[in-house]
Amino acid sequence: MDFTEFIGKLTHELTLPLPGSQIQLMMTSNRRLREMMEFRATELAIKSSVLILLYPGRENIQPTFVVTLRPTYEGIHSGQISLPGGRFELTDENLMQTALRETYEEIGIHHEEVTIIGQLTELYIPPSNYLVQPFVGFTGRSPVFNPQPEEVEQIIEIPVKTLLNENNLVQKEISAHGFHFTAPSFVIDGTTIWGATAMILNEFKEILRKTGL
């Protein structure tokens, strides 16, 4: 299946009912699940969005997406793996524009290069009180990244097929902000993806299965 055919099938799948929050919750620790159930005050949450940006990878046919390693700083998501994105600003027309603007600011991909083909189930993140809307988009060529050093320590490119490899799904001991717990995680080429990013990608994984990739 070439990249164009893959995007066509994925676009169709994104028009159908989404797998939903139950699939997302499969990638959370028990502690995070309790927080979600007990403190889900989403009407007071900070609106935000992220982008799963797809593009042709190796040999121009292997669909790939990008995540970023956040720098170490005094903040909740310090040093974590994230999808490009951030909080809604009053200058944004909508959350899709937020995702595109943040993608440009963080990794240098202009909105005119990206075609949005759908969205996933929104996700509430208790520690930061963010309500995140994930979008899925693509660019038809391998992008030239220009990371913003204050927000991105490293750009990590991931072939989408690695999400379908069950050997990359493991239980990991996580230490974050004084807490120690076990959480289901994607471990891909030494990169550990857990928390909200893993939850979003787990729903994306379920949709990927239906494309026949």
Provide structural commentary.
Strands 1, 2, 3, 4, 5, 6, 7 and 8 form an eight-stranded mixed β-sheet that branches. The model has no long low-confidence stretch (mean pLDDT 89). The chain is of the alpha+beta class and 213 residues long. A hairpin with a 2-residue loop joins strand 10 and strand 11 (191-193). The chain has helices spanning 3-13, 21-25, 30-38, 95-107, 161-164, 195-211, and strands at 46-56, 63-69, 81-82, 85-87, 115-119, 123-125, 130-138, 154-159, 169-176, 179-188, 191-193. It has six helices and eleven strands. The chain has one domain (3-211): Alpha-Beta Complex (Nucleoside Triphosphate Pyrophosphohydrolase).
Produce the secondary structure layout.
Blueprint: H1 3-13, H2 21-25, H3 30-38, E1 46-56, E2 63-69, E3 81-82, E4 85-87, H4 95-107, E5 115-119, E6 123-125, E7 130-138, E8 154-159, H5 161-164, E9 169-176, E10 179-188, E11 191-193, H6 195-211
Parallel strand pairs: 1-7
Antiparallel strand pairs: 1-2, 1-4, 2-3, 2-8, 5-7, 6-7, 9-10, 10-11
Q: How would you summarize what this structure contains?
A:
With 213 residues, the chain is α+β, with helices and mostly antiparallel strands. Helix content is 28%, strand content 31%.
The structural class is alpha+beta
> How big is the Rg?
16 Å
Question: N-to-C terminal Cα separation, in Å?
Answer: 7 Å
CATH class division: Alpha Beta
User: How many domain units?
Assistant: 1
In DSSP terms, counting alpha (H) and pi (I) runs of 4 or more, how many helices? 6
* CATH topology (level 3) name: Nucleoside Triphosphate Pyrophosphohydrolase
Record field, number of beta strands: 11
Overall shape: it is: globular
Biggest sheet: strands, sense, closure? 8 strands, mixed
